[in-house]
UniProtKB/TrEMBL annotation, chain A:
InterPro entries associated with the record: AAA+_ATPase (IPR003593), ABC_transporter-like_ATP-bd (IPR003439), ABC_transporter-like_CS (IPR017871), BCAA_Transport_ATP-bd_LivF (IPR052156), P-loop_NTPase (IPR027417)
GO BP terms in the entry: L-amino acid transport
Family named by the database record: Belongs to the ABC transporter superfamily.
PANTHER family cross-referenced by the UniProt entry: ABC TRANSPORTER ATP-BINDING PROTEIN, HIGH-AFFINITY BRANCHED-CHAIN AMINO ACID TRANSPORT ATP-BINDING PROTEIN LIVF
Signal peptide annotation: none
Domain of life (superkingdom): Bacteria
CDD domains in alphabetical order: ABC_TM1139_LivF_branched
Name listed for the protein in its UniProt record: ABC transporter ATP-binding protein
Keyword set includes Membrane: no
GO molecular function, one term: ATP binding
Record bears the keyword Nucleotide-binding: yes
Domain ABC transporter positions: 5-229
Sorted UniProt keywords: Amino-acid transport, ATP-binding, Nucleotide-binding, Transport
UniProtKB/TrEMBL annotation, chain B:
One term of GO molecular function: branched-chain amino acid transmembrane transporter activity
Origin species: Aliigemmobacter aestuarii
Protein name per the record: Branched-chain amino acid ABC transporter permease
One matching Pfam family: BPD_transp_2
Keyword Cytoplasm applies: no
Record carries keyword Cell inner membrane: no
Keywords, alphabetical: Cell membrane, Membrane, Transmembrane, Transmembrane helix
Subcellular location: Cell membrane
Regions that span the bilayer: 7-25, 37-56, 63-80, 100-119, 126-144, 172-199, 219-240, 260-285, 297-319
Any single GO CC term annotated in Swiss-Prot or TrEMBL for this entry: plasma membrane
Topological relation to the membrane, as annotated: Multi-pass membrane protein
From TrEMBL, chain C:
Listed Pfam families: ABC_tran, BCA_ABC_TP_C
Coiled-coil residue windows: none
SMART domains cross-referenced by the UniProt entry: AAA (SM00382)
Domain ABC transporter, residue spans: 6-247
GO CC entries: plasma membrane
PROSITE patterns to which the protein is assigned, alphabetical: ABC_TRANSPORTER_1, ABC_TRANSPORTER_2
Gene3D superfamilies xref list: P-loop containing nucleotide triphosphate hydrolases (3.40.50.300)
Protein name: ABC transporter ATP-binding protein
Originating species: Aliigemmobacter aestuarii
Keywords on record: ATP-binding, Nucleotide-binding, Transport
GO molecular function: ATP binding; ATP hydrolysis activity
TrEMBL record, chain E:
InterPro entries associated with the record: ABC_transp_permease, BCAA_transport_permease
GO cellular component, one term: plasma membrane
Keyword annotations of the record: Amino-acid transport, Cell membrane, Membrane, Transmembrane, Transmembrane helix, Transport
Family recorded in the similarity comment: Belongs to the binding-protein-dependent transport system permease family. LivHM subfamily.
Main location: membrane
Locations listed in the record: Cell membrane
Organism for this UniProt entry: Aliigemmobacter aestuarii
GO process terms (BP): amino acid transport
Pfam family of the protein (one): BPD_transp_2
Name by which UniProt lists this protein: Branched-chain amino acid ABC transporter permease
GO molecular function: transmembrane transporter activity
Transmembrane portions of the chain: 12-34, 41-61, 67-86, 98-119, 139-159, 185-207, 213-234, 241-262, 274-293
């Protein structure tokens, strides 16, 4: 069986500065994989490559067997990749409702279901995103990605700035999504929560994969060495 | 930093060398072209202070250019006719001394910039662009329909104003005057943009919220920059009037504002010598292409387009390979 | 107890029908870290913005070091010594770290109008700036453009700029956000030392940091403060557990 | 020893049509003159309809090209910028079109000749014609700038009836609904207007649509051959004044009109005719005097011994023409709109400023 | 009666201004692009209409040609030039589109010559009708009012009621992000830009029919279109419409009434010149006053 996402020896640069040197990662259909590493090690860069926001300079990216290394960002998204980006990036002048609708594609997730997940958003439907509180924006970014009804959901620090209760809500949601068969690639700083949902983990250090394995294999030595815990 | 300085010196040096070379070869008109480049460069340097460093995209700087020009024209024509400009509230006689006219031109342009700036700075972004345009257009239409100084026909004063010890009618001597003033303006800009004020001005452009949070009010900083900018452009207008011995509402038109802006963008926004390079290249192209075909403006358009598309950061960006420095 | 440095009484701000802060009163005492927690959209950032003067409260009053500052604008309050960091990093992107901090020093000095003296070689600016960069744990990065900093470093730059204002009080809006595990721990240490310099009003969702740092905690829910107390009191408060902490306590 | 001539005219941008006709008319005359024409060394530059550019070109022609004679400027404001400085530097200026009042009276100069007219002439003729045609009440309109103000003043100078309303429009205005409403309400018998270029085209079309239908009178500029096709049938029947028309019956004009059509494949405009006359005037002076002898050359020019396409032609004391001004009507010849002379509005008209000219 | 006619003229002029600005509302207001070449697209529409109408004898074919030519020019410009500038400073757009003006103006003159072209109205649209109340009014001006209103309604629906509108606005806010969500924003932008260009072309053909079709006709339109949009508030169709009507009324009534008003306090001749000078400054005074009082325009949201 081919993996849903298969990254081989990926390299990438910002201008003349190389940020990814040798990154490999495999994510099977229905799996949750955690991408881990210290600040500035290349997690977001990897995600930008997967979503084709940053061109890869070498290596390959395959989505369900199809080579997507040269596709445009919208094409990859249309193949079923949903992104919750670092820093939220809600469309500031659009209302909450418009943000949710803007890229919606048919499927189980619709406005009603997102509102059920985040009741706070339901109250703020006609407010423009610019004036939302930080946490509300984060909820909106997640809802917006869900509305595209992806096969593969990518969460880049999706719980940043959320209240503890909401964060727990999100983790419950993630477990639910996983149970529904959605595949998820996530970056987060909460080891404890990652341990409860992820099947496997990939650790990056200076733009290269330095460890891959089942989540149970993530020993304190490893986290101490690579995450500074 | 050092590299930028070298580029600046090279640009300024090239301009001066062109003029001197042309003078030695008896090409009087090339000297005049270089003078024009120096004057428009000066206007660009003025605008750059507001636009490049301060992020104040003014589409109305022709107002200050024209005011500088009209002050010169009015003084000169009154000097010729011998009648005072004002009798009330005080008597103001005409003059044909550049050294007397320049401060007047700068003060008048500065006052206009103070009023226009104080009102326009309430707005930001495109709204600022349009309010500044609005003020310039008001002056433009005023000048067109105000018969006293020629209306749309403009005002000719036939002979250049005088400068002690120099024959201003000699192209190379007039160039020397303009180039010196340009040099001074460049020096002034360099100093100001490196000062605390320059730091605050550039900070306010990039992140106004943050600037306020460290206790600096952007409004005053911007207004100061706008007024200084207007004064420099006013001086350029005065020089331009003398170059042509003629002023007209065309100096106040939005085309003029646009052209000064084009010099700045073409050369490289926020680069010290960018406007000088931009003005020089623009004038050179205009001159060279003019001989090529009747439809030379289409060629000019294509060339400009090529520069924008392939040289982000303007002409200076081509050399330094970067967009702009802080 | 000491006189409070910062004292809010009855602050109220509404956006249309939404009351973002509703009759909020709160004090910040010398030497303390006062944490402000509460659900998303409770009004924490709105409260900070009222204190800094970015928005005007509809009602209520703010005293800072005994002086009523309601009539002052944001720049004036910053100069009095109210320093803030932003929930989303807000620095001058094209400036280097050093220039960013120098800007703050210049702002605090109340003299941003020096037209002629070169700033970059002005030791009255560079020396304090270098000191605060060091203090915030950014030494060695002074020459790097802010836009090229990693996320965590940019958060530290926010702190360095706040320090450079030589403030009488810090208002920090989610400084831990995006810091990562290691970075978060470093920042916790920095903040812990910082309180001796000036008290901190800390808005934060990272409960590990809050519980480690806070001397007092206030809980804001729907614009109202529903509880104020020590770490243990707040942890034990059933209402707070239900509306905010969940299982985190 | 020929003469070096610098032509500054508008060859790019919206006003290029007038400059192109000016240039072509001038070139045609040189060409038809054969060897004599070849003795004229011509430098042509585009002023872009910008006064500052015109001044700089003039400087260049004087400083670098060392021309003896300047010519070609279409617009009054450009002429005001260039002419005084040029004649002050001892060059001749022969105007192919613009002839502002400031250069006709106290500001006249022995080296400045207007071959076209004095700016007021056609307006004055319109006034004279309107009086003669028995128009009692008239509505008059021009753009709010010096040439427009001169225009209305010129019209009123010879109009004996009542001016019911005098309206100044904006320079460059393209919509005239408001003015047309005023015309409708004014109770006038006719409308006089001076709206050069696109302004006139727009006004005429809108006027025709409005159903007001009062007769129109104006100077030739809005009915010149370059513009008529754009105005369309709306212009039919309008009376306009000009010192030239392509149906003027004289040999010079015949040679000009036919030559122009053969050479350029279109009908000549007023501007072409004026430039043609200018070139011929120049040639006539060259035949009699050396340009190096400025006084003699000026005298030769002043004698104006050339065959004008206007028939008779002579200069007045301020070196502006004394000539007949005709009244023309816009007619259709086959498919082509053009003008036909229907009468003489003024005979041997000089201008109102000549006696102020002391130089 | 005169006043009623002038008010109608003001309304009509406002609608004409709105038509001129409609394309720019999309491109500048919604997409956030400073397109100085808007006037050139307007000119292209007028020239295409005139040329095709002259060749075929049909005004309607000319109309269609104006839409097609301007849309094609717009699409080409977007793909060849504008597309490369989205990530850049707004000022680069200023320079690039300034260059396009030069290119298009001289290019048009090269193709069509220096002389104005002729565009005549079909008989169904020409002449005047008598309105209730006895006012005679040109048919074509009524048509312009109607077309303007239809365009306004259509644009408003497009921008606020369709997914397309939401997407363009999202694209303006964060172009990269909307792409990452699966929306092919590049193609969308080309389409919208072409649509904006087509509207400019339509305005050129309609307005050109009663004005003059000549090189340079687009320049005054450019400034007026920006004025209208900015007064109304960037991004708001309603604002553009209100702005256009306001400018139309101010200009028309200013021209009609100011000289008369001034004549009551000074001699008629100087009242005339001063009055019309003031009238020509009027719309800029209006804009300055509005923006100083409301820095984000009448209906603008963005700061
Ligand atoms: N726009 C950019 N230009 C230049 N360098 C960049 C840019 N964005 C990121 N980098 C650099 O690329 C490297 C990897 O950054 P990336 O954002 O992928 O890290 P990360 O693992 O996501 O870190 P964090 O946990 O802070 O989000 C860092 O060294 C960073 O400085
Ligand atoms: N300008 C505004 N217009 C309308 N509503 C606003 C405005 N600014 C803030 N709000 C609303 O006020 C509420 C309080 O916002 P605030 O940013 O203070 O929340 P917060 O407590 O900081 O939340 P978070 O922890 O998520 O950052 C939110 O619901 C927000 O949507
Ligand atoms: Mg990251
Ligand atoms: Mg907040």
């Amino acid at each position: 069986m081919t993996a849903l996402l298969q990254i081989d020896r990926l390299t990438a640069s910002y201008g003349s500065v190389q940020a990814l040197f040798d990154l490999s990662l495999t994510l099977e259909e229905g799996q949750v994989v955690a991408l881990m590493g210290r600040n500035g090690m290349g997690k977001t860069t990897t995600i930008r490559c997967i979503t084709r926001l940053l061109p890869a300079t070498g290596g390959s990216l395959r989505l369900a067997g199809q080579d997507v290394t040269r596709l445009s960002a919208p094409r990859v998204a249309q193949l079923g990749v949903g992104l919750v980006p670092e820093g939220r990036r809600c469309f500031a002048p659009l209302t909450v409702a418009e943000n949710l609708l803007v890229a919606a594609r048919p499927g189980p997730w619709d406005t009603a279901r997102v509102c059920a997940l985040f009741p706070r958003l339901a109250e703020r439907m006609t407010q423009v995103a610019r004036t939302l509180s930080g946490g509300e924006q984060q909820m909106l970014a997640i809802g917006r990605a869900l509305m595209t009804n992806p096969r593969l959901l990518i969460l880049d620090e999706a719980t940043e700035g959320l209240a503890p209760v909401v964060r727990q809500e999100i983790w419950r949601g993630v477990r639910q999504l996983k149970a529904d068969g959605l595949s998820i690639l996530l970056v987060d700083k909460s080891l404890k929560e990652i341990a409860t949902v992820a099947d496997s983990a990939v650790i990056v250090e200076r733009g290269a994969t330095v460890w891959t394995g089942g989540i149970d294999g993530l020993t304190p030595e490893l986290t101490d060495r690579y995450l500074g815990v | 930093m050092r590299r930028d300085m070298t580029i600046n010196l090279v640009i300024f040096g090239l301009l001066v060398a062109t003029a001197i070379g042309a003078h030695l070869m008896g090409e009087g008109f090339t000297v005049t072209l270089a003078t024009k480049a120096a004057i428009f460069g000066l206007a660009g340097v003025g605008l750059n202070l507001a636009l490049g460093y301060g992020g104040l995209v003014s589409f109305g700087h022709a107002a200050f250019f024209g005011i500088g020009g009209y002050v010169t024209g009015i003084f000169a024509s009154h000097a010729a006719s011998g009648q005072p400009i004002l009798t009330l509230p005080f008597t103001l006689a005409g003059s044909n001394e550049m050294l007397g006219i320049w401060p007047m031109a700068m003060v008048a342009a500065g006052l206009a910039a103070l009023v226009i700036g104080a009102l326009s700075l309430r707005t930001t972004g495109v709204y600022f662009i349009m309010v500044t345009l609005a003020f310039a257009q008001m002056l433009f239409y005023f000048a067109i329909s105000w018969p006293r100084y020629g209306g749309e026909d403009g005002l000719s004063f036939y002979v250049r104003n005088t400068f002690p010890g120099l024959n201003t009618f000699d192209p190379i001597q007039y160039f020397a005057i303009c180039a010196t003033l340009l040099g001074l303006a460049l020096l002034f800009t360099a100093v100001v943009t490196q000062s605390r004020f320059g730091l605050a001005l550039q900070a306010a452009r990039q992140n106004s919220q943050r600037t306020v949070a460290v206790g600096i009010r952007p409004y005053g900083i911007r207004l100061t920059a706008f007024v200084l900018s207007g004064m420099i452009v006013g001086l350029a207008g005065a020089l331009y009037a003398d170059l042509n011995r003629f002023v007209s509402p065309a100096m106040l038109s939005w085309h003029m504002s646009g052209e000064i802006m084009v010099f700045v963008i073409l050369g490289g926004v926020g680069r010290l010598c960018g406007p000088v390079a931009g003005a020089a290249i623009f004038i050179l192209l205009e001159h060279l292409l003019g001989g090529v075909s009747d439809y030379w403006q289409a060629l000019l358009g294509l060339l400009l387009l090529a520069i924008v598309l392939f040289a982000p950061g303007g002409l200076i960006g081509i050399v330094t390979g970067s967009r702009r420095h802080a | 107890m000491h006189e409070p440095i910062l004292e809010l009484t009855g602050l109220r701000k509404s956006f249309g029908a939404l009351v973002a802060t509703d009759d909020v009163s709160l004090t910040l005492r010398p030497g303390e870290i006062h944490a402000l927690i509460g659900p998303n959209g409770a009004g924490k950032s709105t409260l900070i913005r009222q204190i800094t003067g970015e928005i005007r409260p509809d009602q209520g009053s703010i005293r800072f070091e005994g002086q009523v500052i309601d009539g002052l604008d944001a720049a004036a309050r910053a100069r009095l010594g109210l320093a803030r960091s932003f929930q989303v990093s807000s620095v001058i992107p094209d400036f280097t770290v050093l220039q960013n901090v120098m800007l703050a020093v210049a702002g605090a000095s109340g003299n941003a109008f020096g037209l002629l003296r070169p700033a970059l070689s002005d030791h009255r600016l560079t020396e304090p700036a270098a000191f605060h960069i060091e203090q915030a744990g950014l030494s060695g990065r002074a020459g790097v453009k802010a836009a090229e900093l990693a996320h965590g470093e940019r958060r530290k730059l926010e702190i360095a700029m706040a320090l450079a204002l030589r403030p009488r009080a810090f208002l920090l809006d989610e400084p831990m956000a995006g810091m990562g595990l290691e970075g978060g721990r470093q920042l916790t240490a920095i903040l812990s030392d910082l309180r001796t310099e000036a008290p901190i009003l800390l808005v934060e969702h990272d409960m590990d940091a809050v519980f480690a740092l806070a001397d007092r905690i206030s809980v804001l829910v729907y614009g109202r403060i529903i509880a104020t107390g020590t770490v243990d009191e707040i942890r034990a408060n059933p209402e707070v557990r239900r509306s905010y902490l969940g299982e985190a306590a | 020893e020929g003469v070096k001539v610098g032509m500054i005219t508008t060859l790019s941008g919206g006003g290029a049509g007038l400059g192109v006709d000016t240039r072509d008319g001038f070139l045609l005359a040189l060409k038809q003159a054969g060897d004599a024409g070849a003795a004229v060394e011509l430098v042509i530059e585009d002023d872009q309809q910008k006064p500052d550019i015109a001044v700089q070109i003039a400087d260049k022609m004087i400083q670098s090209d060392n021309v003896d004679v300047l010519t070609g400027i279409v617009w009054s404001n450009l002429a005001m910028a260039v002419v005084p400085a040029a004649v002050a530097q001892n060059r001749f200026y022969l105007s192919t079109n613009a002839a502002p009042s400031a250069l006709a009276g106290a500001g006249c100069h022995p080296k400045y000749f207007s071959v076209s007219y004095q700016n007021d002439n056609l307006h004055e003729a319109a006034g004279a014609y309107a009086s003669e045609a028995g128009i009692g009440k008239i509505f008059i309109m021009a753009p709010n700038y010096p040439a427009g103000q001169d225009s209305l003043a010129g019209f009123k100078r010879f109009f004996k009836g009542e001016v019911v309303n005098e309206v100044y429009t904006q320079v460059g205005q393209t919509d005239y609904a408001a003015e047309i409403a005023q015309i409708r309400a004014s109770g006038a018998d006719a409308v006089f207007f001076f709206l050069p270029g696109g302004m006139g085209i727009a006004f005429m079309k809108q006027y025709a649509e409005s159903g007001v239908g009062l007769p129109l009178v104006g100077p030739a500029f809005s009915f010149s051959q370059d513009i008529l096709p754009a105005v369309g049938d709306a212009a039919l029947g309008v009376k306009n004044t000009a010192q030239w028309s392509k149906d003027l019956d004289n040999a010079a004009n015949k040679a000009f009109v036919e030559g122009f059509q053969a050479e350029y494949g279109r009908l000549p405009s007023l501007y072409a005719a004026q430039a043609y006359d200018t070139a011929n005037l120049l040639l006539s002076a060259m035949a009699k005097a050396d340009v190096a002898d400025a006084d003699a050359f000026a005298g030769a020019l002043n004698a104006a011994e050339f065959d004008s396409v206007r028939g008779k032609f002579r200069f007045g004391p301020n070196r502006h023409p004394i000539q007949d001004i005709y009244i023309r009507e816009v007619v259709k010849e086959g498919d082509v709109l053009t003008n036909r002379i229907i009468g003489v509005a003024m005979t041997d008209r000089g201008d109102a400023y000549a006696d102020q000219c002391q130089n | 009666m005169l006043l009623a006619e002038q008010a109608l003229n003001g309304l009509q002029y406002g609608m004409m201004l709105f038509l001129m600005a409609a394309g720019l509302t999309l491109v500048f207001g919604v997409m956030g692009l400073i397109n100085l070449a808007h006037g050139s697209l307007y000119m292209i529409g007028a020239f295409a209409c005139a040329a095709v109408a002259a060749a075929t004898g049909s005004f309607w074919l000319g109309m269609a040609a104006s839409l097609a030519a301007a849309a094609a020019a717009g699409a080409v410009v977007e793909m060849a030039v504008i597309r490369r500038l989205y990530a850049r400073d707004h000022l680069d757009q200023v320079l690039a589109t300034f260059a396009l003006i030069l290119f298009f103006s001289e290019g048009t003159r090269w193709v069509f010559g220096s002389f104005p072209l002729y565009l005549t109205l079909p008989s169904a649209l020409s002449g005047a009708v008598t309105l209730p109340g006895g006012l005679q009014y040109p048919v074509f001006r009524l048509v312009i009012i109607a077309v303007g209103a239809a365009v306004a309604l259509g644009l408003w629906l497009l921008i606020t009621r369709t997914r397309l509108g939401i997407r363009i606005r999202a694209g303006e806010a964060d172009r990269e992000m909307i792409g990452a969500l699966g929306v092919d924003i590049a193609r969308l932008y080309t389409i919208v830009f072409a649509l904006g260009a087509a509207l400019a072309g339509l305005a050129g053909a309609l307005v050109g029919s009663i004005q003059s079709v000549q090189v340079g006709m687009g320049e005054p339109v450019l400034i007026l279109a920006f004025v209208v949009i900015v007064i109304g508030g960037i991004g708001s169709v309603k604002g553009a419409l209100v702005g256009a009507l306001l400018v139309g009324m101010t200009d028309t009534l200013g021209k009609a009434l100011l000289p008369g008003l001034l004549a009551t306090v000074m001699d008629p001749s100087s009242a005339n010149t001063i009055g019309s000078a003031l009238a020509s400054m009027m719309i800029y005074i209006l804009m300055a006053v509005i923006l100083i009082a409301r820095p984000q325009g009448l209906y603008g949201a963005r700061a």
